């Protein structure tokens, strides 16, 4: 008789329980669904007394929309947002429910866009965002196609260019400090040095005056 090998406790647990990332995504999805349901319930309750000429409620629940993919910090989630049928007309304008939590056409959390520059700091090219994005946010990360990434990078570059060209004529600094900050986050072997200049205002607040990419804290880099 062939003996069936026993499965280790860790192997059994891995087969039964989802991964930590899967748990986080499912928990985020449930919280998002609960928040959307509560938002709709509040909206319907606030206008529950609105009635048309036949006495029918003008603001009612209307099922759920199509499945949407939305990317948040925990990953990419699939949700079906509840819908509202609002038939009220006020001052000639048709009233419409609009979720503040998940507005129409939104496919990613604003916080995700704020985190993406960290990938750029790691020296990733636009093409390299694909595997990094999949590892962080899931294979089907919504709203983060290569085209969208390229558009975001272009926006960051424009913001940085505007920052470098801004007028400082109205600023008064009583102290200016310059320093080099070394990072290990780049993919290259050499540790690049970011050159930073910070100014102190008369009231004690500090402001970033300039930040430039350098190679090391050398006279050539500072020049």
Structural write-up:
The structure is a single chain. The protein is of the alpha+beta class and 223 residues long. The protein has 3 domains: 99 residues, no CATH class; 55 residues, no CATH class; 48 residues. 36% of the residues lie in helices and 22% in strands. It is built from 6 helices and 9 strands. The strands form 4 sheets. A 3-stranded antiparallel sheet has the order 7-8-9, with no helix packed on it. It is elongated, with a radius of gyration of 26 Å. The chain starts with 8 loop residues before the first helix and ends with a helix. The model has no long low-confidence stretch (mean pLDDT 77).
Helix and strand topology:
Blueprint: H1 9-16, H2 20-46, E1 59-64, E2 68-72, E3 75-79, E4 82-86, E5 89-90, E6 93-94, H3 110-121, H4 129-137, H5 146-165, E7 175-182, E8 193-200, E9 206-214, H6 219-222
Name the helicity range.
25-40%
Order of helices and strands: HHEEEEEEHHHEEEH
Give the termini separation: 80 Å
> If strands are numbered along the chain, what order do they take across the biggest sheet?
7-8-9
| Biggest sheet layout | 3 strands, antiparallel
How many individual β-strands?
9
Measured by DSSP, the beta-strand proportion falls in 15-25%
Q: Radius of gyration, rounded? A: 26 Å
What count of domains describes the coordinates?
3
How many helical elements?
Answer: 6
Mean pLDDT over the full residue set: 77
Uncertain segments of ≥5 residues (pLDDT<50)? none
Backbone structural class? alpha+beta
3D shape: elongated
């Amino acid at each position: 008789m062939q003996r069936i090998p026993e499965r280790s406790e860790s192997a059994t647990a891995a087969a039964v329980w989802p991964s930590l990332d899967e748990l986080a995504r499912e928990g985020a999805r449930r919280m998002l669904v609960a928040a959307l349901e509560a938002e709709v319930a509040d909206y319907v309750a606030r206008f529950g007394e609105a009635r048309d000429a036949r006495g029918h409620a003008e603001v009612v629940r209307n099922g759920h929309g199509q499945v949407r993919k939305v990317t948040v910090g925990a990953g990419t989630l699939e949700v079906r947002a509840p819908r509202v049928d609002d038939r009220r007309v006020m001052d000639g304008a048709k009233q419409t429910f609009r979720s503040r939590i998940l507005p129409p056409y939104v496919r990613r959390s604003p916080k995700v866009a704020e985190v993406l520059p960290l990938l750029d700091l790691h020296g990733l090219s636009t093409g390299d965002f694909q595997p990094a994005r999949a590892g962080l946010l899931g294979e089907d990360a919504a709203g983060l196609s290569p085209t969208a990434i390229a558009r975001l990078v272009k926006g960051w570059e424009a913001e940085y260019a505007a920052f470098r060209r801004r007028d400082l004529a109205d600023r008064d600094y009583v102290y200016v400090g310059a320093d080099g900050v070394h990072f290990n986050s780049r993919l290259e072997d050499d540790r690049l040095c970011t050159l930073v200049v910070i100014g102190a205002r008369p009231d004690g607040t500090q402001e970033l005056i300039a930040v430039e990419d350098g190679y090391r804290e050398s006279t050539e880099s500072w020049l």
